[in-house]
Amino acid sequence: MQRVLIIGGGAAGMSAASWIRRLSPDMKVTVLESTQMVSHAPCGVPYFLEGLFDDPNLFMTYEPSFFIEKRGIDLRINTRVKELNIKDRHVTVEIKDKVESIDYDYLILATGSVPITVKNDGTERVYFVHHPAHASELRKALWSLNKIAVIGGGILGIETAEALSVKGKKVVLIHRGKYPLNRMVDEDISSFFLPKMISEIDLRLGEAVLEVRDKGRLVITDKGEYKVDGTVIAIGVRPNSDLVKGQLKLGVYDSIVTNEKMETSEKGVFAAGDVAQSFNLITKQSDWVPYAPVANKMGFVAAFNVSGIEKKFPGVVGTMITKYRETLVGKVGLTSAEATRYNFKIKEALVKHKTRARYYPGSKDIWVKLIANEKDSRILGVEIVGQEEVLGRLDVLAEAIMKGATVEDLFFMENAYLPAVARVWDPLVLAARKIYAGD
Amino acid sequence: MQRVLIIGGGAAGMSAASWIRRLSPDMKVTVLESTQMVSHAPCGVPYFLEGLFDDPNLFMTYEPSFFIEKRGIDLRINTRVKELNIKDRHVTVEIKDKVESIDYDYLILATGSVPITVKNDGTERVYFVHHPAHASELRKALWSLNKIAVIGGGILGIETAEALSVKGKKVVLIHRGKYPLNRMVDEDISSFFLPKMISEIDLRLGEAVLEVRDKGRLVITDKGEYKVDGTVIAIGVRPNSDLVKGQLKLGVYDSIVTNEKMETSEKGVFAAGDVAQSFNLITKQSDWVPYAPVANKMGFVAAFNVSGIEKKFPGVVGTMITKYRETLVGKVGLTSAEATRYNFKIKEALVKHKTRARYYPGSKDIWVKLIANEKDSRILGVEIVGQEEVLGRLDVLAEAIMKGATVEDLFFMENAYLPAVARVWDPLVLAARKIYAGD
């Protein structure tokens, strides 16, 4: 019987495990997960902090018993990998105080990502919003504080700041960039969500944190000091690839390099999810996209290839979405700033529009910025800010960009139109028209 | 100076007129509109009947004075065409009691559509929900009645029945089809909106109206008779092409045949909007799609070609959307029934899913039915029923089908994911996966 070992029980790992069991009932599938949670969703942690739900089991799509009993997976929770020897196809694990050895025929690395930190003097009141397994203790700790510094104005920082602000905390958000979400959207787009944030959060922009001292109660930046009751560090994550350093080829941010089949530089060894590198379909360069939809699909692809059925992961276009209060902010592909950095000569259009017919109650503002390649009018990216129907419109571009669509293709999209949820001229179509026809 | 004559001041006509003025400031553009309204939106009439707004000027994107003063268009409202002689490039119009002759160099026919009727004995209490110009008198009449028969269970019939039911009227909806919207979605999908309709409207399905008698107060069907206070006939529309019969080549339902430039069988004569035939990109056959987004884009294309800049209208995929109360129902492309009728061998998947993460409050049901070509996995159609983010997901498929996407392309779409508005596995991606991977 062939033995598949999967390290990491998150989205990619459990997706892969379930598919292998289904495709290859004869294979033995072992999953090693260092926490007590599997198929978990870190993206839910801010909503838990906000108090929108209380049962931490809801972080899991399925509980461990489901995978063990219903899917026949040899799932071992609370099991940490001590040593991995890829050449010998061998791993040493630690369960509580016991050490055990496991051999395997196929290996899937799905170890996810870990938070990046800043210099600090201890973990007592220094917090990370990352793994759902620690969400309950994190919430208990943060809810007991009054004034909290959040370091980082990216997706996680914004969502954490929002959650704590809604819970009545005084939040100081310290961000190195010129405006929040600056690695996600262009500055012009930021003006459509920034005023609301400024009115509710003490935003410190263009300010770099040098050190957190006094056990999380003093944040020292290049512009000043902040006395707070505790500090959340949310400046981003990096691939959790330490285990394989020196054993496998690493790429962008030390993510694991794979081919389209998710196979690493070592035959029979696959990587999927946040720990794996991906290929950007727009820039045609290596990229790293640590989000759950990509992770799940990478796990799916790895499972098929382990099972001997060739499937290829086509690559990424870089889809992101977050929200602040009722306003959703998302992007697909490249921002103008990114496109310029990648040496594209671009054409762009910014459209402000409404989400419903002018006579239909409840219409909301929506902004669409579309970026296209000057040479061939191929769409390079879109940024959208609005309160309704943002998600689907982003997905339109995710699919369009993947299929190499031009602004002409988007203009002629036969968009759905119902006065209660749209205008005849959809903002996507208007943005495409601006580039296609000059207005 | 070259003279462009446009007959019809709806979406297609005014879109064409505005673009020609912009592209060819030297051309004289005359628009003849038989009512007092231009750039009007018939799709808003049901919401006006429901009482969601009261100002009939809101039906117009811009009022006539805007087009005349700001855009320099020779717009003539309340002007009916008496006779059109295409060979001689000549039209005779009637304004109040005056008759006038107009010659032109280019002609754009944008005469829209007209309601289909059933046998009836007079117009006194027999109503049509069609032109916004008559919406005020229609509303006054219908609001004064108590029990109203609505004939037709398509989009317009459903929207009218909903509006009148919300206004407290007793509505009998008589529909020849087996279930409402049967020309839009498959029967399995109808079960997700039908129960709500049945609980609020007296639905008579599979029943054909033979005649409306007693000045709209008696509806006689093949199964019985209904005594009501008045009758709304909403069984559909047909191209308003009577004016050109015998002069231009007509196609599907007597819509005007054009090439990709929207030029008819007569050089210099264009057609756009509901009166024009279109080409279906899936069936590769002629089709007829009488909806505003298509009309606007056809008008745009006609304008460019009249101005000597070649643009081509690529064709349609058949996008439709409507709602009943809070439930949106939409489709793009072919239903299974249609696909089978066009001799496609199909694979299909039906997914019931939720719109938000399991831990996020306010999640709604959503159903997606995906239809693909068995041979090459090309997507042929999608049907979606749900309460949020239906529009954008339809648009994903409108663009995907237009670009010839397969279920594999849809599965690997890098969909946006935020727990507040989506699940990691988007219902579109799940439906694609069911066909692509068997589950």
UniProtKB/TrEMBL annotation, chains A, B:
Keywords: FAD, Flavoprotein, Oxidoreductase, Redox-active center
InterPro entries: FAD-bd_OxRdtase, FAD/NAD-bd_sf, FAD/NAD-binding_dom, FAD/NAD-linked_Rdtase_dimer_sf, Pyr_nucl-diS_OxRdtase_dimer
Classification via Gene3D superfamilies: FAD/NAD(P)-binding domain
An example Gene Ontology molecular-function term: oxidoreductase activity
Domain of life: Archaea
Record domain Pyridine nucleotide-disulphide oxidoreductase dimerisation: where: 322-423
Needed cofactors: FAD
Domain FAD/NAD(P)-binding positions: 3-283
Family: Belongs to the class-III pyridine nucleotide-disulfide oxidoreductase family.
Protein's UniProt name: CoA-disulfide reductase
Taxonomic lineage from the root: Archaea, Thermoproteota, Thermoprotei, Sulfolobales, Sulfolobaceae
